[in-house]
TrEMBL record:
Organism: Gomphosphaeria aponina SAG 52.96 = DSM 107014
Protein family according to the UniProt entry: Belongs to the isocitrate and isopropylmalate dehydrogenases family. LeuB type 1 subfamily.
Name assigned to this protein: 3-isopropylmalate dehydrogenase
Organism classification: Bacteria, Bacillati, Cyanobacteriota, Cyanophyceae, Oscillatoriophycideae
Function, as annotated: Catalyzes the oxidation of 3-carboxy-2-hydroxy-4-methylpentanoate (3-isopropylmalate) to 3-carboxy-4-methyl-2-oxopentanoate. The product decarboxylates to 4-methyl-2 oxopentanoate.
Cofactor dependence: Mn(2+); Mg(2+)
A biological process term (GO) from this entry: L-leucine biosynthetic process
Record's subcellular location: Cytoplasm
Site annotation Important for catalysis: residues: 143, 194
Length: 366
């Protein structure tokens, strides 16, 4: 039976529309192969929305997103809007979307594709085979805790304050995403905290340990954040899924991402307790190459693969896209950002067409 899904497309700015167009074609073909029917609806966000409505996140966009099964976002921003007041800037639209959909969990994989081992700044033997996922809490912790601000003390000295706070409920819901993500991957979950110093981390560790009994198929371990940072660059292959708070996750997900060395290859997912998740590449709108057919669409297409796996529970369709990308790279095709000697350089559209051919041939091989 054909499964039907409503997908909101937010192409945004810069290279966004180019990489989104290619991704939609890939999804349409995958849909035919796996009996999935996608009902796509496009909406405005970022600079494109500012031009049309003067707002970076029109109410209509949020309403369309809320009614869909998943949201695919390309990228927002550009030079033109860089000097607008904060409330009117493209980035405010992105934050509004995350808040409006209650997205508290951010999933960022770092997978070293065998064909791109040399793109990493670390030695091939250290990074070869790395396949890890950082699950970061996105709406709590020190970025949102109160009190916060710059206050003046009794002696007239200024004092900057932020508060790292998590309730049991906030910890439990991100822990659940961590355990369930580990279940869909290699079954190992490493919780990262600073429980040797921070009380909030002590509570974090207690809750994770308590919840582990509900997931007997997941092996839980704990690391202090300083050690986790060290281990990520020393021996990253030991990790399968990492779950951590907002601040630690912000830093560790960037460290993990850079193990791969190529920004045009990194997807992400942001999930809430219910309702649609948002799936988007980690990179920005790359205004320096916008409109030149030079963008690498693979991070966007891998984000669509994450949508299939984590948003729509269609792991086979997701894997089919991932395998096709591996095959395209194996055949020696590269976009400019991941180009290396001896490979064949393609533009954004040609990369999409090549991928479509490989996906079509996968079907005929079934
Ligand atoms: P960027 O990620 O857009 O670009 C950094 C560099 O990487 C550029 O040289 C760019 O050409 C290259 N690059 C990025 N994605 C690429 C791709 N898919 N293929 C090939 N090359 C790629 O970051 P930036 O230059 O710091 O920011 C540009 C704009 O994007 C800014 O307005 C910024 O606010 C915005 N931004 C948006 C997001 C988002 O939408 N989530 C994230 C980061 C930055």
């Amino acid at each position: 039976m054909t499964e039907k899904y409503k997908i909101t497309l937010l192409p945004g700015d810069g290279i966004g529309p180019e990489i989104m167009a290619v991704t939609v074609e890939v999804l349409q073909l995958i849909g035919k192969q796996f009996e999935l029917q996608f009902d796509f609806q496009s909406a405005l966000i970022g600079g494109a929305a500012i031009e049309a409505t003067r707002e970076p996140l029109p109410e209509e966009t949020l309403a369309i997103c809320r009614q869909s099964d998943a949201v695919l976002l390309a990228a927002i921003g550009g030079y033109k809007w860089d000097n607008l007041p904060r409330q009117q800037r493209p980035e405010t639209g992105l934050l509004g979307l995350r808040a409006g959909l209650g997205l508290f969990a951010n999933l960022r994989p770092a997978t070293i594709l065998p064909q791109l081992v040399d793109a990493s700044s670390l030695k091939p033997e250290v990074v070869e085979g790395v396949d890890l996922m950082v699950v970061r809490e996105l709406t709590g912790g020190i970025y949102f805790g109160l009190p916060k601000g710059i206050f003046t003390t009794e002696t007239g000295e200024k004092r900057g304050v932020n508060t790292m706070a998590y309730t049991e409920g906030e910890i439990d819901r991100i822990a659940k995403v961590g355990f369930e993500t580990a279940q869909k991957r290699g079954g190992k979950l490493c919780s990262v905290d600073k429980a040797n110093v921070l009380d909030v981390s002590g509570l974090w560790r207690d809750r994770l340990t308590l919840m582990a009994s509900a997931y007997p198929d997941v092996e839980l371990s704990h690391l202090y954040v300083d050690n986790a940072a060290m281990q990520l660059v020393r021996a990253p292959k030991q990790f399968d899924t990492i779950v951590t708070g907002n601040l630690f996750g912000d830093i560790l997900s960037d460290v993990a991402a850079m193990l791969t060395g190529s920004i045009g290859m990194l997807p992400s997912a942001s999930l809430g307790a219910s309702g649609p998740g948002v799936f988007e590449p980690v990179h920005g709108s790359a205004p320096d190459i916008a409109g030149e057919d030079k963008a690498n669409p693979l991070a966007m297409i891998l984000s669509a693969a994450m949508m299939l796996r984590y948003g729509l529970n269609q792991p086979k369709a997701s894997e089919s896209i991932e395998q096709a990308i591996l095959q395209v790279l194996q055949l020696g095709y590269r976009t400019g950002d991941i180009m290396s000697p001896g490979m064949t350089q393609l533009g954004c559209r040609a990369m999409g067409e090549t991928l479509l051919k490989v996906i079509a041939s996968q079907e005929s091989n079934c």
